[in-house]
Amino acid sequence: MKKKIVIGFNNASLTSPNLGVQALTYSAIQFITEALQPEEVEFIIIDSYRKYKYDTLHFNGNSYNVNSEKFYLSKKLIWDKTFRSQILDNWKKCDVIWDLGGGDSWSDIYGKKRFYVSFISMLILFRMNKKIILPPQTIGPFRNRVVRWLANYAMNKSLRVYPRDQKSAIYLKENIKDLEFSTIPDMALFLPFVEKQKCSDGTINVGINVSGLLYHGGYTKNNQFGLSVDYPQLIFELVKYFQSIENVNIHLISHVIEDNHGVVEDDLWAAREISKDFKGLIIPKKFNTPIEAKTYISGLDFFMGGRMHSAIAAFSTGVPVVPMAYSRKFSGLFLDTLGYDHVADLKEISNDECLYFIKENFNNRFLLREKIKNIRESKLDFYKKEFIEEIRKDFKQASIL
Q: CA nearest 169: which of 333, 312, 28?
């Protein structure tokens, strides 16, 4: 019997409360098994949150062999011999390792700690002579010079790097000479889902993802991302506006749901805070997977999202969407890479300007839907085929095919 190819995932998760991180992991599995075959591969996930409780993952009509281990703070690799052996033994089994970076860890958007955890694990893998691929993710910005140098060093030693947007690609071109890379947009754009029927009775279903992170003012709780809007007030004004329209139902969609309710990341807590001031808001129950969330969003008529992967879920199901940007990763993906210029930059506009912008896009939602349809047909099919071919080339280069 032919030996299975073992693919390791770092900074990935099937259990994270952040459905965007889960969406990347599901999509990575999907892409690899389209490049190969499900029966040819198995996956070892060094999970950024906690172990996956089953040995087999079922989705999109296939079953995938999955083994996962919880990756604690990197210092535990130094002080805990049992834990270190457990992680190292799993890494040793891998023929190649994809470091997903949680989508955003290969930058300092959220501070340096997350980057350093990723970098230390990569250093250990380089010492083990493991081949590392960085699948589509944000590359940069690196405001800190030390972080920038370390990131460039690691990317130079990697087998392949895939920026997920043009701004990340420009960074690579300007800072790492002769690095081979291909720009492939966010893998979650290709996450499978079951299309939900839209209402045919004249009801307009509007979705708002209320980001708990933005509602709290970032991890520092003092406007960490430098927003020019008052985010909680903006959400209040949006809900008030859409409730004033006849036949509109408002759905508050949570894309990060923490077990410890009310912590800084928790979207569900923020949604419930907003619902204290309004009657009739629809707050869906907790989604168990990103596929469930994407399926739910596909049944909406218009969507706004502060979590980028909630906006990606809307876009990739054809729902007219206004991504509510707090970093350059939004414009890099939607505007520069996909050619979709309906992004509200929360660092550049006022509450009134943002509200006006969203009203205009809502009134033109049928034009947005047609624009998204054209982009999906003209660009996404091409990117999907290209990425599958590139994965096959990577595996041949890694001498595992």
A: 333
Measured CA to CA, the distance from residue 137 to residue 130 in angstroms comes to 20
* Strand partners for 69: 46
**pTM score of the predicted model:** 0.93
Q: Which of 36, 332, 373 is nearest to 184 (CA)?
A: 332
Map tokens 């807590």 to a residue. 269
Q: How large is the greatest C-alpha to C-alpha distance in the chain, in angstroms?
A: 65
Are 286 and 269 a contacting pair, CB within 8 Å?
no
Q: What is the pLDDT of residues 182-206, one digit of tens each?
A: 999 999 999 999 999 888 898 999 9
* CA gap 349, 334 in Å, rounded: 18
Query: Which run of H or of E encompasses 352?
Result: helix 351-363
171, 137 contact by CB (below 8 A): no
- Rounded CA-CA distance 207/299 in Å is 10
DSSP symbol at 340: -
Q: What is the DSSP string of 220-240?
A: TTS-TT--SS-HHHHHHHHHH
Q: Which residues contact 173 (CB under 8 A, 6 or more apart)?
A: none
Please, what sign has the CA dihedral across residues 370, 372, 377, 379?
positive
Q: From CA 245, how far away is CA 392, in angstroms rounded? A: 51
Taking the C-alpha atoms of residue 114 and residue 230, their distance in angstroms, rounded to an integer, is 27
Q: Could you read off the pLDDT of 221-278 as tens digits, one per residue? A: 999 999 999 999 999 999 999 999 999 999 999 999 988 777 899 999 999 999 999 9
Rounded to 10°, the helix 308-316/19-35 angle is: 50
